[in-house]
Amino acid sequence: MKLIGVTSCPSGVAHTYMAAEALETAAKAKGWDVKIETQGAIGIETELTAADVESADVVVLTKDIAIKNEERFNGKKIVRVTVTQAAKQAPEIIAKLESMLAQA
Fold it and tell me: DSSP letter at 47?
């Protein structure tokens, strides 16, 4: 499985990066490929490429504030979570994604 995502929070500092790290750790623990773009106070980091988007099985987007360039994910399976959920419940999110993808 390949998971990509974008994390961002209103202040664009700690929670943005905590959420990205938690999702990466949880996905890697399941043996998934993962790349998370952060949209924080210093701009976009680890920017997702068109190839990343094309090869992704699922996209996780935080929904606390608008994600820049969200249209690039049109046609992909998108799951929206809060940045707090991503930071604190990443293993549960990955388990739900795994179940969802198995049923597809």
Answer: P
Active-site residue numbers? 9
In the structure encoding, which two tokens stand for residue 98, read together?
């795994």
pLDDT computed for residue 12 by the predictor: 75
Distance CA 67, CA 20 (A): 14
Q: For residue 81, what are its two tokens?
A: 């979570």
What six digits make up the tokens of 53? 């988007």
pTM of the entire structure? 0.95
Contact 18, 71 (CB under 8 A): no
Which residue bears the tokens 């969802």?
100
Among the listed residues 22, 104, 8, the one whose alpha carbon sits nearest the alpha carbon of residue 57: 104
d(CA 56, CA 92): 19
